[in-house]
Structure formats: C-alpha cells, structure tokens
C-alpha cells in the first residue's frame, strides 16, 4: 500500500520514548525532555487468562505475542531510532 503520514499508537509511544512527551512549543522552555519512567500495557484478560480460556493453549500464545510486540515496540524501535539521533 501507499505510505501515509499517520502514526500508529506504537509509533507514537516509540517517539515519546526516544524524544520525550513534551510538544514542540514546550520544548523551547525546558532544558531537558520530559521522559517516561514506565509504561503500563493492558492485555484483554480473556485473551491472557491461562485458566479461563478455551483450553486449546492459545491463551498463553496470545500473551507471548503481546510481550513480543511490546518488546519490538518499546525496545527494538527506540534502539534503532536512538542510533540515528
């Protein structure tokens, strides 16, 4: 497909992790960027519940997939971005 100018949620979070959460206007008045110390991610309880799922083992797989996606977003993208900065 064609490239767009829109950013996904994970793109925005990766940008905030690398550059800070302040906007362009506020950055002129701050000596340092406002960084994030932690991020809380919520996974649908039904998708991650090993005991209450459908019993086919997909629940643990959903949790593993979510962890992998978070790892790529919050670590992988920001490491590559920080190397460019």
Protein architecture, described:
With 85 residues, the chain is an all-alpha fold. Helix content is 54%, strand content 0%. The chain has four helices and no strands. The protein has helices at 9-19, 24-27, 45-48, 58-84. The longest helix is centred in the C-terminal third of the chain and has 27 residues, at 58-84.
**Mind telling me the C-alpha Rg?**
17 Å
Order of secondary-structure elements? HHHH
The strand count comes to 0
**Helix amount, in percent?**
40-55%
- The helix tally amounts to 4
Tell me, rounded to a whole number, the average pLDDT: 76
β-strand percent reads under 5%
The N- and C-terminal alpha carbons lie at a distance of 28 Å
Give the structural class.
Answer: mainly alpha
Shape: globular
- Major β-sheet annotation: none
Give the low-pLDDT segments: none
List the helices and strands and how they pair.
Blueprint: H1 9-19, H2 24-27, H3 45-48, H4 58-84
